[in-house]
TrEMBL record, chains A, B:
This is Putative DNA-binding transcriptional regulator AlpA. It comes from Streptosporangium saharense. Pfam families: HTH_17 (PF12728). Residues 29-72 form the HTH merR-type domain. Residues 70-81 have a biased composition (Polar residues). Residues 57-81 are annotated as: Disordered.
Length: 81, 81
DNA sequence: GGTTAATTGGGTAATTTGGGGC
DNA sequence: GTTGTCCAAATTACCCAATTAA
């Protein structure tokens, strides 16, 4: 999967009729490559972060890792040090 | 994770945050696209999982696959490693 | 009926994984 | 202690057109 940055349409999670747009909502899962692109590191480094408990990860039934966008956003904080 | 749709899914089964309503839609069958969204993969990958025996699937009379929520829930687990 | 979106199957390219060593 | 790279095997993504579902 290439490091594709797909633009998200205006996030409209739940419509008035109770329906919602699939796949474009708040908590989509990111691939290691996407997270790596965000932080500017190697995908393997991202996996190391999950190994050391720095990022929670979800496994596909075949063992690949996926990361919650909310978890990633939590790590992105402006640093003044 | 190229699965995206601008229209409403068949019904509200899995909320954008990944949760679901227990008392209401527990036994509803999920489409490949919905399961794909949960795991952050392509719908075809989900079908591949059923072909390799990782997920039991149910077929519509026309041959399309559907998945039980209970089967999917069993596979979801946060991973530390 | 008619429109739109999702699913399916096949083929091929790209990504991910784990280990090892720098 | 952390990160980047090389490797082979496994897994997944994207392409297409036809079928099915809503």
């Amino acid at each position: 999967m290439p490091y594709r940055t797909k633009k998200k349409p205006p996030a409209k999670a739940v419509a008035p009729d109770g329906t919602f747009a699939m796949g474009e909502t708040t908590d989509r899962l990111l691939t290691p490559g996407e997270v790596a692109h965000i932080f500017g590191v190697d995908p393997k480094t991202v996996n190391r972060w999950s190994l050391t408990g720095k990022i929670p990860s979800i496994r596909t039934p075949s063992g690949q890792r996926r990361y919650r966008q909310s978890d990633i956003n939590q790590l992105i904080s402006t640093d003044r040090g």
